[in-house]
Amino acid sequence: MAAYTINVNGEDQKVEVDPDTPILWVLRDHLQMIGTKFGCGIAQCGACTIHANGNAIRSCSLPISAVGDMKLTTIEGLSKEKDHPIQEAWLAHDVPQCGYCQAGQMMSAAALLNRNPSPTDEEISSAMNGNICRCGTYIRIHAAIKTASQKLS
Amino acid sequence: MTVIKTRINRRSFLKVSAASGGGMLLGFSWLASCDPKEQQDVKEPPKEWFDINAFIKIGDNGDITIFSPNPEIGQNVKTSMPLIVAEELDVDWKDVTVQQADLNTVKYKRQLAGGSQSIRQGWKSLRMAGATARKMLLEAAAKQWKVEVSQLSTDKGRIIYRDQSLSYGEIAAAAAQLEIPEEVALKDRKDFKLIGTRVKNVDGSKIVHGEPLFGLDYQAENMLIAMIVHPPAFGMKLRSFDHSSIKSMAGIRDVIQINTAPEKVQWSDVNAFPDLIAIVGETTWQVMKAKKALTATWENMTPLESSTEHDEKLTNALAGKANIMRKDGDPDKVFKNASRIIEKTYSAPFLGHNPMEPMNFFADVTADKAILVGPIQTPEFLRSSAADLLGLSEDQVIVKMTRMGGGFGRRLYGHFGLEAAKISQQLNQPIKLIYSREDDMTQGTYRPAYKVTYKAALGENNELLGMKVKGAGLPGSPLFPNRYPAGTIDHFMIESVDVGTNISTGAWRAPRSNFIAGAEQSFLDELAEAMEKDPIDFRLELFDRAIKNPVGKDNNYDAERYAGVLKLVKEKSNWGTKTPGIHRGVSAYFCHNSYVAQVLDMEKTGDRLRIKKVWCAVDCGIVVNLEGAENQIQGGIIDGIGHAMYSNIQFKDGKPLQENFNSYRLIRHAEAPLEIETFFVDNGIDPTGLGEPSLPPIVAALSNAMYQATGHRYYNQPFALAEQGNSIKIG
């Protein structure tokens, strides 16, 4: 066990955990931030996607010992007023079916638009290829990213 | 919505009129046992709520709460079932808050997610719940105004009499005192205001903002985390384990053995591994680490099976004796006299369900009570099996349903709920059981593996004389003997062989149909080609036979509605026109009482294949929520393409070789079709299934388009498997 201070959604959080504890479980079990989901545990499905310094990462495979002063953002912190263009577009396109993977999908999409506000179809497909949606909502995800992109640019 | 004319034949008319509610008076007894609903908190509650019936409570400020009876698994019933109630109640949807109902099958009857049945079975009772409540509100208002009910009307949660009106909230107290009417008139379809419109998912906002909804998100005081360790191979059981290896690890509280087999086994108790090791600790990561460190020994119970042997067993079964499930005419004779016989064999492997939310359940079991909370498609069955296992009575077991992160049939089988209950009982401790992805993918309950051979006998003039179909399953049969093309061919035979296995299997989205539709519709494509016919015209000729002069009496489909969707997709996709670089495949299938026809357009650029568009015609009767309906159709198509292309569970010495998404492939964003356009037939028939029917046919629309694009026929799933020698890549 070791003590860590990590920055999540703009706030410093102190936790005492084993150094190899993935951020996913720090968020879910220690900080009670359950918006970030567990899907595979091996960075293959993207359900646990969060931002580290604005980049999409898989929180199931990032141990707390590697976080240092990274600024982490989770689905709970994606927007203060619950109005991130990605969230609004997801609602407008009624994207979710079961909804379980969607936090990870949205975090990947938001990171894409952070670095590239007007992605091409190919760029969207490539950036979103690490996030599995078992219900098959990919077409609506794609359309929602285009809508959010238009709003941003 | 697209309208096509579908002449309703006498048989389907009788079926329809018996089930139709448009303007009819319906006898009414199902609410007799309705007991008062306990008050539940909602956001900004009104001062007082009035329980009108099991589905509806109305606040004094006009707020409406509608209880959604069935488990929500992503099929969107939490939106569409209350929407049906709201339609007949005649309220503004924005005034409605939806709550998941508790498990109470006295009040709500069938509370189960499976078989695309929620809307089909709920249609009448949901409408009656809304309509009786509306009638009680009208009666109360008529009394207050001292006028006749017939002089009143309703709109958006208000009762109107000439120039006066009052809200449902103002009259709810009086209405709640009235007797439940014995008869009630349902709306005419032309008066629908909500049904058939686009309504957004009621949990949409919670989902996109990461609020707790799912079983895995459930928290309770003093709750510990539990994980299980099951045998590594089918055919094995636990011999012993060594707690000393992990007992001293940080956060680990206990390591125990549990037996989870209920005495009275129900259909939902499929489980290859009832004897398990359970590890309980403070946090998930600590328990995961202990699970990896645990040492256990296992022993063989039954022979350990491998995929090569599975394939041989299926092949041998098809070569041997089988049960005849249907026989028309004299197929042996026409095959003997045939000028040409076309014979093709199709296969598909075991599949995992792999819902994105791994199996999990919360349990808090004490001496006289069990509280079980989590994602379950069959809460009623979990309750009775849990009562049996725990030695409690059913009314001592409370099962609460959370939103499910997918299911696809996996959560029909609630062994994980029983495991959670048993761990909690044995340790006298509230726990949340969590499966790792590996636990889930290697636990079983797979879609069975299938193989089927289609044979057609052609005559001198290339005419179809007869057909023989022989299928085998590990276990079960993939065949439905009385579905199309039964009824269209004079000499016809269906045979099945059930091949035993110790791999546990269960229902997987559109059971049997998910395999047989692809095989049948691929074969018809190849047959049409051999007969030098257009694949749609060939199918329509067969339907024409079934409409005019069906073979046999027991044909489980309506040939006109079937032909209707095929004609619709033909027209919408401009079938017959050629676009350079685009290769097309067609398919049609009927299951869950719905008819679906699809055309898939595949683009080939060099070696790269891309699914440009899927055209999909659907006859599922009345569409309740167009937004959700289109989403289900799209999901089924993408799911079907993905599993046919990529997914596969194989075995070596009883051990599943695929354990996680690095070796088990699911379809990804770049591989999905670029566009899916859906056309619903508008025929006013009561709604039929929608969660499953778009999946089965797409397998053949895909393989038929792939044939056009590559020149290779694809017989064995997954199509992208390199061993087929025709390795292809989509995306």
Q: Can you tell me about this structure?
A:
The complex is a heterodimer of chains A (153) and B (731). Chain A contains five helices and five strands; from the N terminus they run E-E-H-E-E-E-H-H-H-H. Chain A is α+β, with helices and mostly antiparallel strands and 153 residues long. Chain A has two domains: 76 residues, Ubiquitin-like (UB roll), CATH 3.10.20; 68 residues, DNA polymerase, domain 1 (Orthogonal Bundle). A five-stranded mixed beta sheet of chain A has the order 2-1-5-3-4, sandwiched between helices. Chain B is α+β, with helices and mostly antiparallel strands and 731 residues long. In chain B, helix 4 crosses helix 5, helix 11 packs parallel to helix 12 and helix 15 runs antiparallel to helix 16. In chain B, a hairpin with a 2-residue loop joins strand 2 and strand 3. Chains A and B meet through helix 1, helix 2, helix 3, helix 4 and helix 5 of A and helix 6, helix 8 and helix 17 of B.
